[in-house]
Amino acid sequence: MADLSLSPRSALAPFLHVGHHGAEGKTGVTLREVTACALAELTAFKGQKEALATAIVTSFGIALPAANKSESKDGVTFVSVGPGKWLVTGEGVAEHDLIEKLERVAGSLAAVVDQSDARALVEISGDKARAALAKGVMIDLDPSAFKIGSAATSFAVQFWITLWQTNDAPTYRLTVFRSMGRDLLHWLESSAAEYGYQVR
């Protein structure tokens, strides 16, 4: 039975089946939807990237990450998703004022688009998380190539994802547009089934 007790922001509530699935007696992967999280897209205006970077450091204490990188501090994460463009997430206290703060800091330097209700955000972790992801993403996920702070926007199966690693467990976060959330979940569950997986 689907767990409908999740946040109203949930993009996946009708499709999440909390509990253990796949191979019996093993839990190589854990999946959960991240709902208590604000998301925004930040795009620097032409010629304003350096000024924007200075403003972000001053206000968030975070250096805007270079291509294929992410940076985090105090519940806020900036993920590079293209030239002069970042996906920004805010959790905990940061969730409540992220968009307002970004708009205030960006001013005439960048455009801020609230993505909180437009995207699905899923976390995958466990000792088999890397193996499960490797079945569908065209990224070298070997620890020597993809580690904490690494990020990528890549085609996965039949849709585009933004992926970044948050710790050495390993734990990864993936986001897609809300309309693709069900497909993302189905792919992750299929990839994780042979290792046994827990949905939280």
Task: Determine Rg (CA atoms, Å).
Answer: 17 Å
The CATH class of the largest domain turns out to be: Alpha Beta
- Please write the string of helix (H) and strand (E) elements: EEEHEEEHEEHEEEHE
Percent strand equals 35-45%
CATH superfamily of the largest domain: Probable tRNA modification gtpase trme, domain 1
Described by strand count, sense and barrel closure, the largest sheet is: 7 strands, mixed
Number of helices: 4
Helix-residue proportion: 10-25%
Provide the number of structural domains: 2
Named CATH topology of the largest domain: Gyrase A, domain 2
> Any low-confidence stretches, pLDDT <50, length ≥5?
1-8
Reconstruct the topology from this structure.
Elements: E1 19-21, E2 29-33, E3 37-44, H1 49-60, E4 70-73, E5 76-82, E6 85-91, H2 93-106, E7 110-114, E8 119-125, H3 129-134, E9 151-156, E10 159-167, E11 171-177, H4 181-192, E12 197-199
Could you please describe the fold and organization of this structure?
With 200 residues, the chain is an alpha+beta fold. The protein has 2 domains: 13-35 and 119-199, Probable tRNA modification gtpase trme, domain 1 (Gyrase A, domain 2, 2-Layer Sandwich); 37-114, Alpha-Beta Plaits (2-Layer Sandwich). 22% of the residues lie in helices and 36% in strands. It is built from 4 helices and 12 strands; from the N terminus they run βββαβββαββαβββαβ. A 7-stranded mixed beta sheet has the order 1-12-2-8-11-10-9. Strand 5 and strand 6 (85-91) form a beta hairpin. The radius of gyration is 17 Å and the shape is globular.
